[in-house]
Amino acid sequence: MSTTKPSLALYGGQPAILDSFPARKAFGESEEKAVLDVLDFYRDKGEDPCYRGPFEQQLCSSFSDYMGGGYTVAVATGTASVYVALAALELPKGSEVIISPVTDAGPLSAIIMQQMVPVVADSEPNSFNTSWHQIEKKITDKTSCIMLVHCAGLPTDVDVIAREAKKRGIKVLEDCAQAPGASLHGELVGSYGDIMATSTMYRKNIAAPGSGGLIFCKDEALYHNVLAHSDRGKPLWSQDYIERDPSQHLFPALNWNTNDFSCAVALSSLKRLPHTIAKRNAFMEAIQARLNAESQVCRIAPWQGTPSVFYIQVLVDVEKIGQRKHEYCQALIAEGVPMNPHYKFLISDWEWSHEYFKTPTETPNATSARDRSFNLYVNENYDESHVSAIVTAILKVDQYFTTLTS
C-alpha cells in the first residue's frame, strides 16, 4: 500500500464514490397490481374497503404457512404488534419484562404502558444482540417475560433462551421487526418463543405502505387472545359472535385493525422475501470477505445462523485510527458510503425512560459496540459493483487515518 496520504473528500478531495447507490423501490409493479386488485375487488362487490377483509386474511394465512404453520394476526403498526402480543400473554401487572438493550421506543413503551417493569439486559461484546448469558443475570422471581430483539436481522441464541426460559416458566416474545425470515439451526426466528411480533413498515424487509405489523403464534388459545386484544376485546373466533354487539366483548382493548390495501402490498413483499434475504445476505458476505482480506480497520460484526439483513454493523478498530471514529465516519460519508455513523437506538441513552426502570440501565457492551461501529445501509439492489465501491472508499479512508497514527 502506498504511504502517500490520499486526499479525502471530507477535506476537499475527489470522492471515491461518484455514482449514487440504487434506491430500494420496494413498491413496484407487483405492489401496484396488488392495490389495483383490492380496488377492483371492492368495486365489483359494490362495497367500500373494510378491515379483516379477504386480502388481510390471505396475508395472515400466507405468513402462517411461511412460518411453518400456526396463526397470524395483522395489525396497523409494528409497535402495535408488540403491544398486542405482550397483552395477549396476560402477564401479571408489576412483573418484570427483560428487554434487549438495542431496540425501538415502541416495544419499551408497550411494557411501561401495560404496567410492567422493564429490565434491560446487556448485549454480547461486539454485538447489538443480547444472549442467554446476559439475560440470566437479570432474572428474578418477578421475571415474567423476555422481549427478545433480533437486531439488524441477525439471530440471537434464541434456541438457548427459549429453552431456558421455558424451564423457568418465563414467556418469550420474539421481536422480529428487523429479522423476518432469519433462521437459526434451520428454524425461523419467531418460531422459538411463545409469540412473535414483526413489522411491515415501509422500510422493513417485508414492506407495506406506511406502517403495519404481524403477530404469529402456534397456540390456538393464545391466538384467540391476540385476536381479542387486537380489536376491542371481540371474541372473533366464536360462531355466536355478533359484530355490532359490544356487550359480547371480553375485556377493554384498543382497535389496532389494519386494511386490505396495506395487507395486499405486504403479501406481495412477503412473496419476494426469500429473494430479498438472499440478495442482502450475499452482499453482507461479500463485504465481509473483502474487509477481512483488505481492511486494516473494519470488520463485520459477528453473526450466526442465516440472517435476514436489515443493516450491516461494521466494527471499527478505533485504536488504529487514533480513537477518531466520528471523524473517520464523516470521512466515509463524504466519500459516498451510505451509512448511519452513530446508532441511537440504545435504551441506556434515553433519559426519558430511566424513571420507569428499577434496575440500572447501563449496558456497557452495547454502548461499546455502538461507539466502535457504524451501520452500513443495504438493500436488495446492491450488487458486487457496490461492494467494490464501498470497500474502495473504506480502504482510502483507512490509509489516511492509519498513516496519521503510524
TrEMBL record:
<dbReference type="GO" id="GO:0000271">
    <property type="term" value="P:polysaccharide biosynthetic process"/>
</dbReference>
<keyword id="KW-0808">Transferase</keyword>
<keyword id="KW-0032">Aminotransferase</keyword>
<feature type="active site" description="Proton acceptor">
    <location>
        <position position="204"/>
    </location>
</feature>
<protein>
    <submittedName>
        <fullName>Glutamine--scyllo-inositol aminotransferase</fullName>
    </submittedName>
</protein>
<keyword id="KW-0663">Pyridoxal phosphate</keyword>
<dbReference type="InterPro" id="IPR015424">
    <property type="entry name" value="PyrdxlP-dep_Trfase"/>
</dbReference>
<feature type="modified residue" description="N6-(pyridoxal phosphate)lysine">
    <location>
        <position position="204"/>
    </location>
</feature>
<dbReference type="GO" id="GO:0008483">
    <property type="term" value="F:transaminase activity"/>
</dbReference>
<dbReference type="GO" id="GO:0030170">
    <property type="term" value="F:pyridoxal phosphate binding"/>
</dbReference>
<dbReference type="Pfam" id="PF01041">
    <property type="entry name" value="DegT_DnrJ_EryC1"/>
</dbReference>
<comment type="similarity">
    <text>Belongs to the DegT/DnrJ/EryC1 family.</text>
</comment>
<dbReference type="InterPro" id="IPR015421">
    <property type="entry name" value="PyrdxlP-dep_Trfase_major"/>
</dbReference>
<dbReference type="InterPro" id="IPR015422">
    <property type="entry name" value="PyrdxlP-dep_Trfase_small"/>
</dbReference>
<dbReference type="InterPro" id="IPR000653">
    <property type="entry name" value="DegT/StrS_aminotransferase"/>
</dbReference>
